[in-house]
Amino acid sequence: MTAERLSKERLRLWLRMLRVTRQVESTLRERLRTEHDTTLPRFDVMAALYADGNGLKMNELSRRLRVSNGNVTGIIDRLVEDGCVERIAIEGDRRATRVCLTDAGRASFSKMATEHERWINALFEGVAEEDAHHIGELLHRLPTPLHDAT
Amino acid sequence: MTAERLSKERLRLWLRMLRVTRQVESTLRERLRTEHDTTLPRFDVMAALYADGNGLKMNELSRRLRVSNGNVTGIIDRLVEDGCVERIAIEGDRRATRVCLTDAGRASFSKMATEHERWINALFEGVAEEDAHHIGELLHRLPTPLHDAT
DNA sequence: AAAAAATACTTTAAGCTTAAAAATTTTAAT
DNA sequence: ATTAAAATTTTTAAGCTTAAAGTATTTTTT
């Protein structure tokens, strides 16, 4: 009977995580759209590029963001159109390209990131530091397929 | 300085939640696809209908799942094609329709739900009952736009 | 060197998602 | 009763997402 209850409790936890995550994502999407005329996937890609000064291969972006190759192709296409990133040939391997933020892209992301942190901080206002830390640790310890370097 | 650290800690928490949620969703998608030839959005819609014996209006479905009206329209279209749900006219209001699971849909969902709970239970293996409960409570207490009845 | 396998990326087809606009129908105001 | 406003749903346009197939290039095997 205890296993049964544990299973139900974990299911409830999952449903709540899902609900909170979707709500936060939805809020972020809305604000990125109205205040920065961009989308969450674009923001995520730019964040990955911003964190890594030298740019990333399509490949690495795809793995880091856990989305399909084809998906990254489309997002980068649009970011290039917008002048936020550029594809740079890799000497010695004509299959791959390195994607870098342009100066404009870097400046634009920098502004968004500051606000993004403020938004998150406000949305999670009810979470005290030790709770944030505790939950973070727990999430970090989840079995293999679920976590990864962060 | 403490506010600064708190903000960073909350941001870290958010990023981890996002990562775990995406990973779990990705696993669920994959299994629903390969083992039940369906998708997560279809599953979510069927879950909402299953929980409510009398069917729901498009309207209610949209609000309950927190997705746009137009989105629900498309998913229901496909579920109707598959014979899982049906649209039933509401007498007295020709604008709205009530969506109900068919017998086949109910049977199909019932099977999936059992497995779904098993999958979740396995994915969250590292979370003890008191932790699940604790985190669940915290998530539940988040400020207004973030939570809702569940 | 030629063939096979692996790697990096793009394309395609199908479906999900949203916001905004449109179409219908109902309710409220005048 | 007419008109205006609100409610319910669908349509549309744009973009996100995936799996699978396709293209080009590099590496490994034979």
From TrEMBL, chains A, B:
Pfam families in alphabetical order: MarR_2
GO MF annotation terms: DNA-binding transcription factor activity
The name this protein goes by in its record: MarR family transcriptional regulator
InterPro entries the UniProt entry points to: HTH_MarR-typ, MarR/SlyA-like, WH-like_DNA-bd_sf, WH_DNA-bd_sf
Occurrences of domain HTH marR-type (ranges): 10-144
Domain of life: Bacteria
GO biological process: response to stress
